């Protein structure tokens, strides 16, 4: 490679590397703001802002969804399998909302530590399968839970 | 052999002729894979266990999003070659790819938004994945605008190549955004080293669509590059001879 081309290549390499480092630093500095939501553990630890609204994300705990008598308000717990936060929301829930489903809610904590949501979004996971496959996976899982492997019981 | 082929492809005249022969092949194979992919994706593949029929928009959304990044990488690599070796043909590839790349980015954003409303409950959120993809669209538009703002084609190509290289940092950000930060957008189902989190019956039409979109890009970039060559070389003898022959 002739020296001029080598020089150009080095300059471009330095430019791209420089921009890469600058972007990396900027993204690191804004890390918290780039997080779309806080997990229930972070909320319980008090990492979430108290004065202004924020988003909480996690799974809807099973058997926690309760409809209020007014017919529009729903109360449920959002969990990350470590901590859980109670959420109350008045309005129409998205199609994918169900127990065990990942959701992201926007709102604020009240004095009792209940998260009053103004918006609830369903988070979809990366798994795609036909209903029959989901059904057989579930059956297999239930069976495995009901009849643990013999080796497990020996130990 | 291969080196000689690339050397010859660097000549606009040779490229023009070879591209002219390749375009119909790309077009035919694009149409075949498109019909196969769409038919299997929209009619044959089973509905999803959670999303029902609505997931089928991914047969357009996912390949478009892949293409938006793939085309940008092609542009950045061609930009690098243009800047270092000053090859005319790679300059032409950079600018010929910009519009089709912008279209795929727009398609990915639009179809994602249409899917997001029923599934997530919102058209748009400012999470890391969606925002970085929107930045990619602005990069494409910036490249197109910059190119048309500079009169001298070779100077314009150099400016555009630098912009393409500057923007390439966005590509890993888009790809890893779903892993680095909490996002509303789901993580990757297919482009990961693990086993794809998608049933085979759904995956095959998706990959067919991805191939189909690549072939479409191939056809479009070759056609646009040919047009660009004729425009740039309009004063050269071979173009004038060709025009005279066509006129006869």
Descriptive overview:
The complex is a heterodimer of chains A (155) and B (248). With 155 residues, chain A is of the alpha+beta class. Chain A has five helices and six strands. Chain A has two domains: 3-28; 39-123, Beta Barrel (OB fold (Dihydrolipoamide Acetyltransferase, E2P)). Chain A has helices at 3-29, 31-34, 40-44, 131-146, 150-154; strands at residues 54-60, 66-67, 73-79, 84-90, 102-109, 115-123. A five-stranded mixed beta barrel of chain A has the order 1-3-4-6-5. Mean pLDDT of chain A is 82; it is low at 150-155. By secondary structure, chain B is an all-alpha fold. Helix content of chain B is 78%, strand content 0%. Chain B is globular. The two termini of chain B are 37 Å apart. Chain A binds chain B through residues 5, 8-9, 12, 15-16, 19-20, 23, 27, 31, 34-37, 39, 57, 93-96, 104, 119-135, and chain B through 46-51, 55, 58, 80, 83-85, 118-122, 125, 127-128, 162, 165-166, 168-169, 173, 180-184, 186-189, 197-199, 201-202. Chain A: It is found in: Cell inner membrane; Cell membrane.
Q: What summary fits the major beta sheet of chain A?
A: 5 strands, mixed, barrel
| Biggest interface | A-B, 39 and 40 residues
Low-pLDDT ranges of chain B = none
Q: What gross morphology of chain B would you assign?
A: globular
- The end-to-end span of chain B amounts to 37 Å
**Portion in helices of chain B:** over 70%
Total of helices of chain B = 9
Report the CATH architecture of the largest domain in chain A. Beta Barrel
**Beta strand count of chain B:** 0
The count of strands of chain A amounts to: 6
Overall SS class of chain B: mainly alpha
What's the number of structural domains of chain A?
Answer: 2
Entry summary:
The complex is a heterodimer of chains A (155) and B (248). With 155 residues, chain A is an alpha+beta fold.
Topology:
The complex is a heterodimer of chains A (155) and B (248).
Chain A: H1 3-29, H2 31-34, H3 40-44, E1 54-60, E2 66-67, E3 73-79, E4 84-90, E5 102-109, E6 115-123, H4 131-146, H5 150-154
Parallel strand pairs in A: 4-6
Antiparallel strand pairs in A: 1-3, 1-5, 2-3, 3-4, 5-6
Chain B: H1 2-9, H2 12-44, H3 58-85, H4 88-119, H5 128-149, H6 153-167, H7 170-180, H8 200-232, H9 237-247
Helix pairs in contact in B: 2-8, 3-4, 3-6, 3-8, 4-5, 4-6, 4-8, 5-6, 5-7
